[in-house]
Amino acid sequence: MFKDKTVWITGASSGIGEALALQFAAQGARIVLSARRIDELDRVRDACTSQGLSAGNVLVLPLDVTDFESMPAAVNTVCSAFGRIDMLINNAGISQRSLCVDTDMSVYRRLFEVDVLGQIALTKAVLPLMLGQGSGHIVITSSVAGKIGVPLRTGYCASKHAVMGFYDALRAETSRHGITVTTITPGFIKTNISVNALKGDGSELGEMTGEISGGMEVNRCAGVIMEGFRKGTPEIAVGEGMEMKALWLKRFFPRAIFKKVATMA
Length: 265
Prior knowledge:
Layout: E1 6-10, H1 15-26, E2 30-34, H2 38-50, E3 58-60, H3 71-82, E4 87-90, H4 105-133, E5 136-141, H5 154-174, E6 179-186, H6 210-213, H7 218-231, E7 235-238, H8 242-252, H9 254-262
Helix pairs in contact: 1-2, 1-7, 4-5, 8-9
């Protein structure tokens, strides 16, 4: 299904992005790896080629998703290398661990620049190409936090709610043009997301929190996501903890989930 398809993954230097890259490599896709850390992208590239993918089918393309002006050139680079873009996985992002009262506005701005505007800007840069092709698949990694508000993550929850709304609307706009849009709602996945999370002053938390360390293994997570792609699932919920039951509770018993998350504060 994915053999010879061009798949562009942002946030590909670690976590879910890296795990998905390895899954696509095993399927024989042509992969574009983007993030800011070139040394880590090179490491992921080497891991992909160790799966048997030829070096010519992996492009390392450093990208800062907040540098909107660089995106048209990045799209041209991918097209020059592979001729087309079949799938864009908007996976770059940062989280937060601070109470609202302690959070500087610059932190909220940073969260929205990376988690929302960066994803929208790259999508807008790729979308005309997909419309011209008459096909394409656009993916956004949101979160359970894009459905449920929880303490210490006011900005993160706001950003993930925002991308859920944007990409749901984009799905409605583009479906008649042969373009698929998939939203991913991970729960607690064992990655460095909390290590890199921003505190109220903008510094990094620097530690893996308990719920993350006890979360779903990232390779299992990637496997569930790939199965969702194969089935054409428009919204892929992935996780194995109580937070996944919270998605159901929020829909049918919102007051119960509001009381439950209040105890987390």
